[in-house]
Amino acid sequence: MTGISHEEFIRDYARAVTSGDAGVFAGAGLSRPSGYVDWRELLREIASDLKLNIDKEIDLVEVAQFHLNEKRSRSRLNEKLIDEFTKAASPNDNHRILARLPLVSVWTTNYDTLIEDSIRAAGRNPDVKITQANLAQTRPGRDVVVYKMHGDISQPQAAVLTKDDYERYESSHRLFVENLQGDLVSTTFLFLGFSFTDPNIDYVLRRVRVLLGENQRTHYCIMRQPKPPKGGGKMRAEYDYEKRRLELRIEDLKRFAIQTVLVNEYEEITDLLRAISKRAHRRNIFVSGSAREPGIFGVSRLNDFARRIGRELIERDYNLVSGFGRGLGDQVILGALEGIHGTHKGDDSNRTLIRPFPRAKSGDNQSTTNTRHREDLISQSGAAIFLCGNRDYGGEVKKSKGVLEEFRIAKSLGRYPIPVGCTGYAAEEIWNEVSNNVDAFYPMKGVKTALKALGDATKSDSDLIDAVFKILDRVTKSQS
Fold it and tell me: What is the CATH number of domain 6-36+87-278?
């Protein structure tokens, strides 16, 4: 089959994310891992009441219309929506990864609130559009616009469900149609969990194609390949049919400049999104460190060094991510602010991501809250610098558990660790582990000499700073 390579997709879509002109179109498949039903399951009981087998039906919108025709009321459909989409559910990994990407817009045909819930949980501000009246209003300080083009569970009576709803859509939701058409022209979309059977989307795609022809913007979708059967006969015939139909669908989507990315299992989608996140955030650098005791550097030198790290991150066109801690954290942030002041280039609002550790909500464990906060910040970074790392535990200075946890998180997310081992304590432990497994942490070449320098206590501050940025520049270039 003729889908594009994973590497090409990751590179090009991440580039659109970084440039600030990427969006997502989410279908029911995005919410299914969280426990919500897709359209077929939503209408299973409805079809059974009509004496239809939902598994044999192709046009599911027609099934909903048949029910409305027979009952002359959509109350049962509304009740079904409420029953299915008010169940307790939490955003899944894919929701969380998408929520942290700097997307321009998210369009969805889903009725649930998992998308906007995950964006808020990531500390970002979604501007949710459910009705046409919402489109005339702009939420102050919004980070991303979420268009719920088929409605929301809070208004089940207005949800787009039946053929009547779809046939009226161009007039009843004209502003949604126009906004989507505009976004398809100016934004690179990733269609996720979407089957391309929605007549509204098909209408808009056709309109854009007629207007722009071969000048359409490239979009992407992810689809699963059919699994080869273990046996022959009927199973082989069904596989060959599904495979051929997918080949035809892939070619047809190219008419709308939609490139298909094929996966063998849906779980691969999470890996693809993580790779996009890593590449899109590659210039965001998390700095981890604490120093109840300054070690061989001494207080003055360690503070000056941390401040210089922050300043040079900005001056060298990187961005600072920090959990805002006292001592070293203050110095790194101060240095970054000095860098912003000295290299002002217009909009500096995205040069720093600084969030203090939140207090645990009632009933929550503070340690668990801290872990989630660390995961959120590190997931929005491409690399993590580690300085010193010690705390006072009951009157005894020991390696910081928080700094070591941040290293474990960075490692699990595939972020590049840059430990300044000569600052001692947790940073030294991390440096030892990374130095003993360089190839595992850095698949690219050209970092060993710089990494070795970071463990050398005889090196000057300038030598150490140069070593840090040689590694940063090398890993950043490898993802360009």
Answer: 3.40.50.1220
Do 6-36+87-278 and 282-478 have matching folds? yes
Does the pLDDT value for residue 428 go beyond 90? yes
Give the active site residue among 150, 173, 219, 281.
150
The full set of domain ranges for the chain reads 6-36+87-278, 282-478
Q: What is the mean pLDDT of the chain?
A: 91
**pLDDT per residue over 14-48, tens digit each?**
999 999 999 999 998 999 999 998 888 889 999 99
* Predicted local confidence at residue 345, as pLDDT: 59
Query: How open is the CA angle 101-29-229, to the nearest 5 degrees?
Result: 125
Tens digits of residue pLDDT in 463-472: 999 999 999 9
Give domain 282-478's CATH architecture: 3-Layer(aba) Sandwich (3.40)
DSSP 97-158: HHHTS--SEEEE---SSHHHHHHHHTT--EEEE-SGGGGG---TT-SEEEEETT--TT-GGG
Choose among 145, 155, 148, 152: nearest CA to 108: 148
Distance, C-alpha 74 to centroid of its chain: 36
β partners of residue 128 = 146
Name residue 296's amino acid: I
Does residue 347 surpass a pLDDT of 60? no
- 204's CB contacts (< 8 A; 6+ apart) are 177, 180, 181, 184
Whether the full predicted model's pTM is greater than 0.90, yes or no, is: no
The CA-atom distances, in angstroms, between 251 and each of 9, 95, 204, 257, 262 are 17, 28, 18, 10, 13
Q: If 0-12 CB within 10 Å is exposed, 13-18 middle and 19+ buried, where does residue 97 land?
A: buried
**Calpha distance 215→219 (Å, rounded):** 12
Residue 150 annotated in active site:
yes
